[in-house]
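Please fill in the sequence for the structure shown.

STRUCTURE ENCODING:
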């Protein structure tokens, strides 16, 4: 483990989804572009970009000349406004729970205790789960629409009313991706994005997209936005933030963790690859990779259009059925929460509140095991053993796999996987899902989408925020292949390795890096970048 102090100087800017390695120093007024990985010391006033970050000129000075107000009264008011909003937004799931609990409260009337009434609570709790999801959606929708009032393209002081609205919108929508996970990557997602204020065309496919400013977002007909994409993100610097429209063009593709920031657009029929940023200027039909982005060659994939772009009604109905099944994990996670209350009530009645409190850890560990087991059971029942191959978007395998993913994200993650990060328990669970994992593996990520296709050798390391990406969508066809980390291999924080790729024995891939499809990182070497290239490895800090 490598630890070290990090120092960010006065007036410096660190872009979204950037990684600062231990020992990094960012000088005053310097800027780190989005999606960069910095090691060492960056001189004051310099612009650094890329992974690994290199000097790209002087830091931008296109912010308003007049400094924003920094009076003590303004600072205190801003602190209270942001702190108050943070607390209020955190209450969304709890307010929803209060409303959703009404059927359960009604069922408890006349019961001597919660634990005594549990056999009659299954139906009311299931109804409460559906209500909880719906009320969460309503609260998020109303909050985002209200926060969007008065937002226009331009520069605004970060600690102003508009700045507060922009920040609160981003916080709300980030929370929504967890609370409303079943709504994403579905037929309803385009409808949801329209309700939030975005302009969305027909036949759009969108996964867990984060629209930082929905009313600034346009997604044209037939576009595809993959997992964890970020669109219309604000720019921050000099005490100001900037918002501007962003557009995803007709039949354009924004890959996993891709970014389209303020004022950028992905032209029609164009592609921005995994972990990549949209360029400032691009022609229709072009493809881009990396941050900063560079041109990428792309081969078109042909397939049955009835399974990709023009599905018949029967396939739409079948997909809708499987997507409705995603409510089952929501019901289960609410039932686990209700089960915890029932167990604590029974323990308190049996041995007192002190004993119930002392046994709370054991209870939550047991419930975590139930949550973990639910995803394992769903995986083997719904999709079975996963093998390398291709599946069009409109196929049963993909829909069933999304139901399993909802079990993982809505049940296993909150009750087990996040808390188990870096522990043997997470490794045992991933093995149960189908991964081949050796002894002494350190794994801080549960994002192994098709676990059967993953091999982690003895003593290998998967750091926090990594995605072992065993599938890619290309022209609405999902292609899956194996990924292997050999013995002693390391995948650095917030890095992605693509299908058919491997990291050989003892090799290290640095942070914020992308191992391209089909690549093999040679044994005992250091690599870093997006895409990866040879790297000297972590060493003494140096000024750049």
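FILLED IN BY: designer on duty
SEQUENCE:
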């Amino acid at each position: 483990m490598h630890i070290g102090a990090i120092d960010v100087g006065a007036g410096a800017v660190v872009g979204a989804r950037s990684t600062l390695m231990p020992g990094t120093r960012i000088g005053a007024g310097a800027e780190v572009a989005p999606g960069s990985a910095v090691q060492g010391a960056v001189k004051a006033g310099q612009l650094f970009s890329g992974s690994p970050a290199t000097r790209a000129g002087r830091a931008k000075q296109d912010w308003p000349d007049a400094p924003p107000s920094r009076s003590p009264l303004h600072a205190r008011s801003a602190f209270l406004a942001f702190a108050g909003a943070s607390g209020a937004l955190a209450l969304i799931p709890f307010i929803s729970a209060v409303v959703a609990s009404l059927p359960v409260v009604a069922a408890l009337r006349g019961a001597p205790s919660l634990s005594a009434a549990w056999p009659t609570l299954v139906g009311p709790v299931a109804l409460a789960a559906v209500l909880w999801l719906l009320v969460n959606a309503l609260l998020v929708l109303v909050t985002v629409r209200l926060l969007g009032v008065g937002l226009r393209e331009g520069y605004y002081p970060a600690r102003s009313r508009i700045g507060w609205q922009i920040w609160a919108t981003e916080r709300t929508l980030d929370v929504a991706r967890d609370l409303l996970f079943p709504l994403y990557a579905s037929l309803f997602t385009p409808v949801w994005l329209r309700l939030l204020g975005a302009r969305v065309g027909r036949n759009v496919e969108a996964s867990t997209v984060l629209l930082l400013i929905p009313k600034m977002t346009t997604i044209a007909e037939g576009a595809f936005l993959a997992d964890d994409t970020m669109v219309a993100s604000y720019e921050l610097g000099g005490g100001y933030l900037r918002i501007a429209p962003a557009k995803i063009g007709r039949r354009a593709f924004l890959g996993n963790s891709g970014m389209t920031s303020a004022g950028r657009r992905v032209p029609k029929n164009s592609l921005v690859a995994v972990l990549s940023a949209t360029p400032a200027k691009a022609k229709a039909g072009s493809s881009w990779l990396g941050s900063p982005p560079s041109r990428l060659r792309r081969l078109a994939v042909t397939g049955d259009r009835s399974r990709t772009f023009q599905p018949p009604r029967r396939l739409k109905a079948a997909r809708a059925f499987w997507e409705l099944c995603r409510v089952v994990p929501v019901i289960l996670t609410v039932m686990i929460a209700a089960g915890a209350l029932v167990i604590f009530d029974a323990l308190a009645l049996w041995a007192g509140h002190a004993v119930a409190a002392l046994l709370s850890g054991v209870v939550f560990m047991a419930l975590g095991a139930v949550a973990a087991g639910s995803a394992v059971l769903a995986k083997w029942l719904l999709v079975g053993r996963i093998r390398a191959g291709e599946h069009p978007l409109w196929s049963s395998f993909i829909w069933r796999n999304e139901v399993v993913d909802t079990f993982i994200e809505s049940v296993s993650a909150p009750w087990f996987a996040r808390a188990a990060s870096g522990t043997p328990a997470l490794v045992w669970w991933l093995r149960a899902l189908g991964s081949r994992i050796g002894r002494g593996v350190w794994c801080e990520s549960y994002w192994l989408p098709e676990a059967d296709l993953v091999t982690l050798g003895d003593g290998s390391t998967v750091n926090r925020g990594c995605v072992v990406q065993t599938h890619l969508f290309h022209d609405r066809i999902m292609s899956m292949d194996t990924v292997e980390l050999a013995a002693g291999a390391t995948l650095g924080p917030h890095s992605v390795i693509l299908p058919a790729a491997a990291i050989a024995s003892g090799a290290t891939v640095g942070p914020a890096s992308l191992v391209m499809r089909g690549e093999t990182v040679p044994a005992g070497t250091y690599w870093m970048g997006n895409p990866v290239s040879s790297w000297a490895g972590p060493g003494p800090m140096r000024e750049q």
